[in-house]
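Thread: Modeling a multi-component assembly for a lab meeting

Hi all, long-time lurker, first post. My supervisor asked me to bring a structural picture of a complex we are working on to next week's group meeting, and I have zero experience with this. I have the sequence lines for every component (570 residues in total). Could someone generate the structure of the whole assembly? Inputs are pasted exactly as I received them:
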Amino acid sequence: MLKIKKKRNKEFEPAILVFCCNWCSYAGADLAGVSRFQYPPNIRIVRVMCSSRVEPIYVLRSFSNGIDGVLVIGCHKGDCHYMHGFEYTLNRMEHLKNLLKMVGIEEDRFWLHSISASEGKQFSELIIEFTHTIKELGESKIPKRFGTMEFKCN
Amino acid sequence: MSSYINNEIKCSNYNFQNLGVTIKNVISMANYCFACNRCVNVCPLSHLDVFFPRKLVGDLILSSLGEVLTNHNIWNCLTCGQCSIYCPMTQENLGVRIPDLILELRKASRKSKIQINRITQCETHNEIFPLISKMIANNPISPNKLEFLKGKVLKTADSGEIAYFIGCLPLMEEIFYNFKCNYTEIPITIISLLNEANIVPVVLNEKCCGHDILWGEGDTETFKKFAEYNTQLYKDAGVKIVIVGCAEGYRIWKYDYPKIVDDFDFKVFHFSEFFLKEKILEHVKFPQSSKIKVTYHDSCRMGRLGGRLYNAPRELIRQIPGVELIEMDNIKDDANCCGVATFLNCNEYSRFLRQNRINEAINTRAEYLIVSCPKCLTHFNCYLNEPSSNEEKKELRNNIKVMDLASFIGKLLFLV
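Re: Modeling a multi-component assembly
Sure thing. I ran the full set together rather than chain by chain. Output:
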């Protein structure tokens, strides 16, 4: 009984997944850590070589596994290590945003941003802002692990 | 009967849901077979040495179910229904009915480990379709898929007698954005043509029809959620007639929902059927143009598995002035499959089947290949747009264009 009461009083702590590209935003996150900018501990960073590597299915799968918010961070437009990577991401994620609406996931649960390697401060600010919006939205309405398929990423 | 008792002992490693009922069903269906081998002669996959329906049915009678399911891969079957047309022991609700038999087997065995491995092997598009259907089914928030109607001058209602079921077309538009199939042209054309005849259809944010989750994975729990949600939504809106724009939705609404929903009292029409009944094409004037030659591909869900709706779409094409319909070699009951059903198995075999059908269409020298199923549309377009250095392949794209029936009419009338 005590345990349940404690849990109720506790503030909701969201689980957030962040996809960072190797060349810009992961370095930006690194800089945020090195220069000791504070940000909430709710995020888990997945490093990908380029933000255009993030397939729509990754985001959908993470929502189905009980993640409350997903953030995809790439380079600034024109700064991509692979020339046109972020433009592909923009195109892909625009369609994904529409898809998420049709599935019935709130718009604010998925953000796309760009952060360069020198923007440590901006990275921590972005994470604070995103965690705040997710906390206001509350827990994801989709029940965790419903299907019969066993997801390989677990 | 001894084989039936054996089944229960030998299948201990298979966790069957409602073991008794489904397996009795399957065995009793298989018992009608007298091994004439006609199904193997017509099955498009048995020509490619992939799947043998007669062998499967024969083994069901003689050996245990566990053995049958390990020896035969039931997920390879296209459930296109060619076999049940030629089977002398199949009638509408009686006899072997191989597509239904495969469906029952899929329902019963889908939770065992071997079968889960097999499903994951043959799933396409990174399992995005079953995942999305499961998410939508379990999500308490209703989906919002009518965004594409914004900014269009179309009249839709929230309650009324006639409803138009959009289904997953806007979803497919977002997933296959690089094919440029323009799936949303289909609902826009249908709604605006209905408006021309002073009919304001009910268009709601319904969930998927659940075709892929039922036929592709045999997942009855999720399917039941879809069926109950959609029928309840339409009952609350006071709907009595449901118009469906795609072949799969038509099959599901007409034949699978009444089985699973208790008091199902909707009249279901394919849009071509409804347009003919209400004479909707008489309300519009087609602009004069030079003669267009088209050919029509029968999809399995509207033909062999959907009450043989062959004449309505053809009649609709003939009503358009300046359009000449040329038939392919194999039509109606004999129509060849497009190669992929329910987004399972995209491999060299399905590619061969697609190639076969496209070549058949090109041989008629028609400019357009008209289909009525969004899945046929996707897969034919996928074959035509394959990147290749082969010059002949590049010429294919100029020879024929694949288009949906509704969006073809919409293009002619400049509606989309």
